[in-house]
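User: Sequence recovery, please. Input:
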């Protein structure tokens, strides 16, 4: 197995002047063939390998077959292993397609072209993805920071196929959620937390008070309400996201659910809750990516420790915290260590009663450990 990333520091020489996104042939120091990959002149990851088989040059037909294979691995999942009509169809390096993410929302696809090579092929990729999945259309949601590392600007103008409605209703865990493919975070919704929302809700008991931090459009809270939570407090920096969360309660017939919304920084609001001696039976911490790269691990570690320490201080006796990290720069062992630091500073004792991970439509490639990015623990105060 070969790791798909080749960094600038590992390259001795480059013949000619390959264009950004061009497919180049890689040889080792002895002159032996290594593989074919996309060239990124402005990124520290100078080459992302596509094929390590000399006889399989990644031409258009190669991409068509790779996308078809990735989709085939997911198509049987919704309604069976996955309780949803939405899932990830292509997961970058894990599917042998570095820099490409494609999510399916019902009849529509949302894609992120994160590297020069994938951006250069977006029209062909859209055609292949629509063909393989039977979707009606694909929208480009390449509006993320990773593209800047490639020297690329944000891109949201591209679409292929039929017109995509401004809002969709998707199904997940027997609930409905409003999704905007054009404006929502990531590709529109956090599909990777589907199984964890259901798992966390299985620990909810009737009468519990729930605090949902970084709640976005309320998916964790909807699952908690469905499990019998008595009161729900949703906290997010985005008021539009909280507005959609309220819509989602109504869409799911949960108008009678006791709920309260707070718009602001979780760090600030949690401190205010602490100073007001507020407490909760169940707290959910699903923050954004604090450590997108290993270079930001120290800063991210402090942020994870601070927010978890604040949550620990807000727990009622025997309370539970479902805490997550989606930072690929922080592995499971490091995240657990950070939680130990927070627990020590809280002066309280905690047990791990459940571990969370990413779902089966976000597979982990053995040759690419960075693909195992989502991790979490359910902690109980004892």
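Assistant: Recovered sequence (382 residues):
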């Amino acid at each position: 197995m070969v790791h798909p990333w080749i960094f600038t520091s590992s390259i001795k020489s480059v013949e000619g002047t390959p264009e950004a996104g061009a497919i180049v042939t890689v040889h080792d120091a002895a002159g032996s063939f290594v593989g074919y990959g996309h060239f990124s002149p402005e990124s520290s990851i100078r080459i992302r390998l596509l094929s390590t088989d000399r006889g399989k040059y990644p031409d258009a037909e190669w991409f068509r077959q790779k996308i078809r294979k990735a989709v085939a691995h997911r198509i049987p999942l919704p309604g069976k292993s996955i309780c949803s009509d939405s899932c990830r169809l292509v997961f970058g390096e894990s599917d042998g397609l570095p820099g490409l993410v494609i999510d399916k929302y019902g009849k529509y696809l949302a894609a992120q072209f994160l590297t020069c090579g994938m951006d250069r092929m977006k029209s062909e990729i859209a055609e292949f993805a629509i063909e393989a999945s039977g979707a009606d259309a694909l929208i480009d949601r390449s509006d993320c920071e990773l593209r800047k590392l490639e020297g690329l600007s944000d891109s949201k103008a591209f679409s292929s196929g039929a017109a995509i409605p401004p809002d969709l209703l998707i199904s997940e865990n027997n609930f409905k959620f409003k999704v905007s493919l054009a404006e929502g975070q990531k590709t529109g919704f956090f599909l990777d937390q589907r199984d964890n929302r259901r798992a966390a809700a299985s620990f909810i008991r009737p009468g519990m008070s729930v605090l949902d931090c970084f709640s976005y459009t309320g998916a964790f809270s909807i699952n908690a309400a469905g499990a019998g939570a008595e009161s729900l407090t949703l906290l997010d920096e985005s008021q539009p996201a909280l507005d959609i969360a309220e819509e989602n309660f109504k869409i799911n017939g949960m108008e009678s659910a006791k709920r309260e919304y707070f718009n602001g920084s979780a760090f600030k609001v949690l401190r205010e809750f602490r100073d007001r001696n507020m407490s909760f039976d169940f707290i959910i911490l699903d923050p954004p990516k604090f450590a997108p790269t290993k270079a930001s691990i120290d800063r991210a570690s402090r942020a994870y420790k601070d927010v978890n320490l604040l949550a620990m201080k807000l727990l009622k006796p025997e309370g539970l915290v479902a805490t997550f990290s989606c930072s690929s720069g922080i592995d499971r062992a490091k995240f657990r260590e950070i939680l130990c630091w927070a627990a020590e500073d809280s002066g309280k004792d905690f047990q791990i009663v459940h571990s969370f991970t990413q779902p089966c439509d976000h597979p982990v490639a053995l040759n690419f450990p960075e693909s195992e990015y989502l991790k979490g623990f359910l902690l109980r105060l004892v």
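Residues 297-313 form the longest helix (17 residues).
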